[in-house]
């Protein structure tokens, strides 16, 4: 084979191999002017940081502060335990890669400047609950880091998702409501369980300083959010104990739905439906996982 032909063959093979190894995506992290962001799915597996196992609390807390203040996305992504929960309808952050891209959405410049003024002595120990800074904007519950702070950019994204969520509902469910929670229902361990997902909405019509009203809509398998739900009930939220455990109760004359937002034993959310409140055998107690629209 002539040299120039050999060169072309090798060049073609090299280009092919490079193109196979490249993973492209059209989704990028938002800027300060964006209103939406969608976390990109990663092939990497969620992991749990072991920083807190090898460092003193003071050193560990200082690393958290410096990573946020300096915009050190990679270090912060390694500290976080996944998934990092975000309030519905925001998607949870599942991987380090997503955290790196979401960092600027989560922490705006003004908040990072606040954190830059703190040091490891700024953390307040709140007993068994863990430690917090800035009145609970960030918690270290060892080993989980909880972020209660929500930047203006993230709030705009959440509002965009809320409007998008409500616009997809059946007209009978629209009105003075906004999404509070949505869960996929895993009834695989319950023979005859016929529901695929449930959504909880909160009234926007409540009076100031009063507990808001809640509504649950439960959908059968094979239906979508734009369909008429099989069950619609009004109810209330109850927050109990020092752990502030949240339970949602809904009922009518013949049906009842209970959603335990965080089980004490495993921290998971559970959905229970009674088709006849007088008979325990009609109870369907299934785990549910936070999900986003469209529910399909």
Entry summary:
This protein has 296 residues and is an alpha+beta fold. It contains seven helices and twelve strands.
Number of helices: 7
Cα gyration radius (Å) = 23 Å
Beta fraction of the residues?
A: 15-25%
Could you say how many structural domains there are in total?
Answer: 2
Characterise this structure.
By secondary structure, the chain is α+β, with helices and mostly antiparallel strands. The chain has 2 domains: 51-154, no CATH class; 168-290, no CATH class. 26% of the residues lie in helices and 24% in strands. It has 7 helices and 12 strands. It has helices at 3-21, 51-54, 57-69, 73-79, 96-106, 109-116, 152-167, and strands spanning 124-125, 131-133, 138-140, 145-147, 177-185, 195-203, 214-220, 231-240, 245-251, 256-260, 269-274, 283-290. The strands form 2 sheets. The protein has an 8-stranded antiparallel barrel with strand order 5-6-7-8-9-10-11-12. It has a 4-stranded antiparallel sheet with strand order 1-2-3-4, with no helix packed on it. The longest helix is centred in the first third of the chain and has 19 residues, at 3-21. The radius of gyration is 23 Å and the shape is elongated.
